[in-house]
Structure formats: C-alpha cells, structure tokens
Design brief:
The chain contains ten helices and nine strands. The strands form two sheets. A seven-stranded mixed beta sheet has the order 3-2-1-4-5-9-8, sandwiched between helices. A two-stranded antiparallel ribbon has the order 6-7. It has one domain: 3-Layer(aba) Sandwich (Rossmann fold). It is globular, with a radius of gyration of 17 Å. Helix 2 runs parallel beside helix 5. With 245 residues, the protein is of the alpha/beta class.
C-alpha cells in the first residue's frame, strides 16, 4: 500500500460526495470544537491537513477563525471544498499538498490540525514521522498541533487484533499491508487504508520527531456527540502536542 492508492481512493466521486455531505449534515464535532477553541485563537493562522471537502475548516470559519488553509492530497476533495467555499461565500483557502513534503516556510503557521484520523491514512511509519516533522517545521515555536487516531487496544476490536497478530506471526497477513496495525477497510467505494496505532506508538513517534506531548483523551470522554457523528466514524483518540519553544 502506498500514497498513490490512498489518493486514488479519496479521489473517487462517491467518496468525495460522502465527505461533502458530511459538511452540511455533520459539521464540526462537539469534541473538536471544545479542543480547537481551547488551543487556538481566532486571529491565528491555522493549517488543516487532510482537510477533505472542508468539514472542519468551514466549522472553524463559522466560529470566527478567518485565517485558515486547508490542504489535502486528493485533488478532487480540494476542488469540492473550493466549490462549497464559493457557494457559502466563505474565505477559506484550499490547496493540494502532501503532508510529508509541505511547501511552506519554517514557522509560517500558528497552529495545525490533522482531523478525522487523517495522519493514519499515510502508509508506513517513516512517512507518518516525516509528516510529523514537516508539520512541526512549519509551525512557530510554542504552537499547538491537534490530531486524532484510532486505538489498537480498543476493547471493541480486541478479538480482531489478537487474530491479526497471529496471522502476522505465521506470515499469513495480507500482502497489501506494510506493517502490523495496518488495515484495509471495506466500504461501498472499495478498500480504504488506515493504520491503527497503540498509544505507546504515537508517544514514541511524537518524541522521535521533536514534539512535546501535552495530552490525549478518547472522544467519548470529551463530549457526548450526536448520533450522526458516531455513525460517521468510530470513537477515536484526540492528541495535543506542542512545538517546543
């Protein structure tokens, strides 16, 4: 599995439509609003990675955040975000870009977000670490970074991961997977890739890439989300890290 496969999946018309519908039907999660309002000030310049069709960016705009740049690897997602932005007459900027190779200057942003487990759709750990290094590079010293992941020790999927670990030990894992923790999830649009980490794995990745870990918490512990949010995606873990001064 590589970035081209991930990009091809998210460029599919049906996937773009699903994400576009989430802009109006779901909007900003209660947990996201709580975290973002605590970390970021409306006058700050924020970078949202894996922005999709703009669900988070538009929600922030409606909260008064006016200096927003959304970046996504999938060109069709970005084009749809721009279309919605024009219809709504908002002022959010959207660009196509790769989180592992950001084309922005050092310390250019006051904060960053990688929502809806987007960091974990980057295949291979070294590439996710490259993204973490790039995000830290483009943030000013002291800036905050918020992102989410799933959790491999979740009781809901315990039986799956016990069986999957045995498959890897015996060499029977899917040849399309790069590392233990990778999953290919079935959807109406085909197989989507995501890496499911442990908490210890993320803490190690943050440390290796120079971040100062602040806190992590399950979404369910942060807010009682609407049913639509819970249907849209399983419970996840929020992470907050700081670019050291």
């Amino acid at each position: 599995m590589n970035a081209d496969h991930v990009k091809a999946y998210y460029n599919q018309p049906g996937v773009v439509t699903d994400y576009a519908q989430a802009v109006s039907r779901i909007g900003l999660w209660r947990s996201e609003e709580k975290i973002f309002k605590r970390l970021f000030k409306p006058e700050q310049t924020l970078l949202e990675l894996g922005c999709g069709t703009g669900r988070i960016a538009f929600g922030l705009w409606e909260l008064g955040y006016k200096h927003l740049l959304g970046v996504d690897l999938a060109r069709d997602m970005v084009e749809e975000a721009r279309r919605i932005n024009k219809v709504l007459e908002y002022g959010v900027s959207f660009r196509v870009g790769d989180a592992t190779k950001l084309s922005y200057g050092d310390g250019e942003f006051d904060g960053a977000i990688f929502g809806f487990n987007g960091l974990m759709t980057i295949p291979r750990r070294e590439n996710r670490r490259a993204a973490l290094r790039e995000i830290r590079r483009v943030l000013r010293p002291g800036a905050w970074f918020a992102f989410t992941t799933h959790d491999r020790v979740s009781e809901k999927y315990r039986a799956f991961w016990v069986a999957e670990e045995q498959r890897w030990k015996e060499g029977r894992q899917s040849p399309e997977l790069n590392e233990f923790g990778d999953r290919l999830l079935e959807s109406p649009h085909g197989l989507s890739f995501i890496h499911i980490p442990t908490r210890e794995e993320i803490l190690e990745d943050l440390a290796v890439t120079g971040w100062r870990y602040e806190v992590d918490a399950a979404r369910a512990d942060l807010a009682n989300e609407k049913d639509l949010v819970r249907v849209f995606g399983d419970d996840c873990r929020f992470w907050v890290a700081q670019n050291p001064a």
